[in-house]
């Protein structure tokens, strides 16, 4: 039973007839169980209490609509669409191993190809065994080109080759896979800084997005990862994967509240079409 099933516990809006302390306690607990986090749950409930008083809300339907607005406001922290205004644009994908980073890149490449964009993949995760081979398989599925080197190669060198190839081939966007190593943040920071310098030097003025790929099933650990990668990389957005299965998904509220990072995409399954642009209104509607 996945996110959109489990979260129906917030059916408390139809389970209560009055806005009692018990109702507020139940709402707070439901948000915590959905991985929104203690601070986000407390803040949401306090904001709701305040608006109930200010707006003289009496009915559960009014309370539900007000909660929907509060959660949407929490998620409204930036543009959820990718900035692809330069040619080529660059999208860096970072995240720990096993979160679905390479799969996400492949799915997004296929979508962009379907939109008529010329896409180039850069296999700059040279640390993990078979990472470039996995990305090559996805490049084949998506029908896009890939630039790669051997295992253990300098990731910045791969990006250098990719930027040169993008210029010569007239690519619209370069999607860059990177290694996810949080056990040594200094190495990761140095690697990402080097990659950034190469992009800036080889393609001055290029628009760059840096997306953290998070596994929704990791719960509050996702917020810890987001904090660490934000320090290392200067993130511009989040991709939340594996919202199918056992994920509850409320972690996006905690990340938006604390780090002001918008969710750009959500992964809802294994199919190449199962990566979808994030829509806050639909998310909140499903939540409630």
Number of separate strands: 8
H and E order: HHHHHEHEHEHEHEHEHEEH
What is the terminal-to-terminal distance? 17 Å
- Strand arrangement across the biggest beta sheet: 3-2-4-1-5-6-7-8
Q: Could you name the ranges where pLDDT drops below 50 across 5 or more consecutive residues?
A: 1-9
- Class of secondary structure makeup: alpha/beta
| Count of discrete alpha- or pi-helical segments spanning 4 or more residues | 12
Mean pLDDT comes to 87
**Strand portion:** 5-15%
The shape, in one word, is elongated
- Quaternary state of this entry equals single chain
Major β-sheet annotation: 8 strands, mixed
Helicity, as a percent range: 40-55%
Gyration radius (Cα, Å) is 21 Å
Description:
With 288 residues, this protein is of the alpha/beta class. The chain has an eight-stranded mixed β-sheet with strand order 3-2-4-1-5-6-7-8, with helices on both faces. Mean pLDDT is 87; it is low at 1-9. It has twelve helices and eight strands.
